[in-house]
TrEMBL record:
InterPro entries registered for this protein in UniProt: ABC3_permease_C (IPR003838), Membrane_comp_ABC_pdt (IPR038766)
Source organism of the structure: Roseovarius litoreus
CC per GO annotation: plasma membrane
Keyword terms, alphabetized: Cell membrane, Membrane, Transmembrane, Transmembrane helix
Membrane topology designation: Multi-pass membrane protein
All copies of domain ABC3 transporter permease C-terminal, residue ranges: 263-377, 720-825
Official protein name in the record: Putative ABC transport system permease protein
Signal peptide segment: none
Superkingdom of the organism of origin: Bacteria
Amino acid sequence: MSLVTAARFARRELRGGLRGFRIFLGCVILGVAAIAAVGTVRESITVGLGREGATLLGGDASIELTYRFATDAERAWMDETADAVSEIADFRSMAIAPDGERGLTQIKSVDAAYPLLGSVELQPDMPLAQALDGRDGLPGAVMHPILTNKLGLEPGDIFKLGTQDFILSAEILREPDNAAGGFTLGPRTIVRTEALGASGLLAPGSLFSTEYRLDLPVGANLDAIGAEAEAAFPDSGLRWRDARNGAPRVEEFVNRLGAFLILVGLSGLAVGGVGISAALRAYLATKTETIATLRTLGADRQTIFLTYFFQIGVLACLGLAVGLMLGVGIPVLLSPLIEARLPVPAVFGAYPGPISEAVLYSALTVLIFTLWPLARAQDIRAATLFRDAMETGRILPRWPYLVAIAVLVMALLSAAIWFSGDARLSLWTAGGIVGSLALLSLAAIGIKQLARLLKPVIRGRPSLGWALAAIGGPGTTAGPVVLSLGLGLSVLAAVGQIDQNLRSAISRDLPERAPSYFFVDIQKDQMPGFLERLENDPEVSRIDSAPMLRGILTQINGRPAEEVAGDHWVVQGDRGISYAAAVPDRTTITDGEWWGADYDGPPQISFAAEEAEEMGLVLGDVLTLNILGRDITATITSLREVDFSTAGMGFVMLLNPAAIAGAPHTFISTVYAEAPAEAAILNDLSGKFPNITAIRVRDAIDQVSDLLAGLASATAWGAAATLLTGFLVLIGAAAADQTARTREAAILKIIGASRAQILASLALRASLLGAAAGIVALAAGITGGWAVSHFIMDTDFEIAWTSALLIVTGGAMVSLLAGLGFAWAPMQARPARILRSRE
C-alpha cells in the first residue's frame, strides 16, 4: 500500500483523541521542556554577558599586569591608544575595626577615572568620588555590607588598612565590573590608590595585580590593538582582554554548568524514553483487532509500520511544541525573578540554539524508543496478533531496525558531545545511562523470576502471595516500573553520593590536615619577628614558610605554553613560584636531581610530578617564565611530589635561588595551630605587622562549601526533573495495569478475599517493586558516584548511607503512592459485572 493509505489510516486513528497517549505526551513534554529551559537560561546569560561585556570588563579592553604597575612606556602607549584609561590595583588585606575585630577583604584601589563605564551604587546614595574623598583629613572608603556587619562598622566609622586610617563613607550595593573579578575570598573594599601610600600594603614584592581599563575610539579594531600591545611589549607578561569576553570565568562556569545540566536532562529523556516505549506498547496492545483486520485485508508490514509511525510522529510534534513553549516561556515569564538572583546580566528570549538543541535531543530520543515496539508490531503475523499483540512473536526486531536504532543512538551521543563541548563528560554520562538501563533491565527480569520462586514458599500470607503472583505473572508491569523509577533514582543517587563525598572531602577530611592560616605579604625583614611569635607558642604544631613570587608560564621548549599544554590550569593565568637552596622538608624527589646548595649556574626548575605528566613535560624541557615583566628561561632538572589536597603550601614550580632571589618578593607562611589559639595568633601578628594578610583556611573552606552547595542544588533540580518523569511513567504503568488489577480483584472477591486483603496486596506489590528499583538504583548510583569521585574529582569515596537509605525509602514510597492512587477501581469492582464483561 502507498504512503497516502498509511497516512489516511493514521488520520482515522487520531480521531480517537489522545486517549492512551497522555503518558507518551507527558514524557515528551517534560523532556523537551527541561532541556529547553536549561538551554534558554544559559543562552540568556551568554547574550547578557556579550551585550554588557564592556560594562562588566569596565572598558572596551583591559591590560592586566602581575606584581607591578605599568612602566612609563606602557602607560604612554595606553594613553596614546585609548580615549581614556583607568588604573586599578587588586589585592587582599585585613580590615581592622576600632575594637580590634579583623576581617579579610578584597581591596580594589582606583584612580579618579574609575569607573569608565557604569556606576558604583552606594548606601547612602552618593557619587563614588565624593565617598572616596573622605573627611577630616582621612581618605574615604566604601565597603561591602557583609564586611561592615562582621566588623560592626557604620558610615562615619574609622578603620585601618595596613597602617593607614580610613573613614567608611558608604556601603557598596553594586559594582558594575564585579563579575569580571571571579572568585574572591573576602568582601570588597574600594579606596583610592594614592591613599594607600602610607599603608605599607603595596610594598615591593607584595601580592597584587593591576588592571588598566581602556576606553577605545568608536569602531576600534580590538584584535589589531591587542596584537599591537603584545607586539610592543613582548616580554612584559601583560594579559589582554576585551569586551567580547568581559567575564570569562563567569561565562565558562555558566557554560560548563549548563552543559552538565543538559546531560542530566538527557538522563530524564532516557527515563521518558522508557515511558514512551511502555506507553506505545500498551497502546498497540489495544489495537490488536485493528491491526489484525488490516493485515487480513492485505495491509503489508510497511503499511502497518507507517500507519502508527505517522500517528506517533504527529503526537511527538505536538509534545515537542508544547514542551518548547513551556521550556522557553517559563524562563522568559520568570525572568525578573531569575535576573534578581543572578550576579550577571541576562537577556531572556527565545533563542534558536537552545530550541534546536532541545528538538534534536527529543526527536532522536522519541525515534530510538518508538522504533523497537513499532518494528515488533509490524513483524507479527495476523493470527498471532489476534491472540496477543506484544507478548508473542520475536523479541528483537529485524536487523535493519536494529541498525537504525544504533545509528540514532550514535547521533544522539554525537549531538551531546557537540553541544556540551565535553566529550569525556558526555561519554561518561552515556555509559552511565546505558549501564543503568542494562542493570535495571536485568534486575526487572530477576525480580520477576524471584517473585515466581518465592510465591510457592509464601503460605498463610495471601496478600503477599497475590502481590508476588502479580509481579511474576504474565502482563506484569515490573519492567517499566523498575526501568523508569530506577533510572530516575539512579541519577538522584549518583548526585547525592557525589555531593556528600565532596562535602566530606572539603568540610570534614580537609580541616584535619589543613593549616589554620595562610599568611602572605610577609616582608623579609619581618620573618624573624614573625617566626619568634609562633615558635614560642606551644599551641602551634607546625610552621612552613617560603619566599613567594608570581609568574606566568609563557613558553615550553620555545613554543607557546597553551599550544603544548592545552587548557591545563598551570598555564591559565599566573602561578605561585618559589625558590629553595636545599630540598624542602617533606618533599620527595621522584625523578632527576636537585641542584646543590651553592649552585649559581643557568636557571634550573623543579616541577610538580603529577602536573608535569598531565602536561607532557619531562626532564630536560625548557620553560620560560615571565616574572615582573622579565623572562626567565629554566631547564627542568627534577620532578617532585606535591600534594595540593592538604591545603598546605605547595608550589608547582621551584627554582634555584640564584635565578630569582634578586627579584622583589615577600614570604608566605602556613601555620598549624590549635583552634583556641587562632584568635590570639591573628591579633598578635596583625597588630605587630599590619601589612601582613591572614587568610583563615576554615573560612575559605566554608566559602567553597557554599559554592558546592549551590552546584549540588542546581544538579539536584535537574535530577528531580528526571525523577518526575520517572514518576509520570510509573503512573502510566499503573494506569495501564488497572484493567488487569480490576479483574484480579473481582476474582479475589469471589473466592472470599476482603477489601483490606486486596488493598494490602496492591500496596505490597507497589512497595516491593519500588524498593527493588531503589536498591538497584542505589547500586548504580553508588557506582556512578565512585567513578566520578575517583576518576574526575580525584577524591576519596565513602558511601553516604543517609542518602542511600533515603533513595531506597523514596523508591518504595513513590511506587506505593502511584499504586494506591489507582487502587480505587479494583477496590470498587463488582465481580458479576467484571466477569460478565469478559465472556
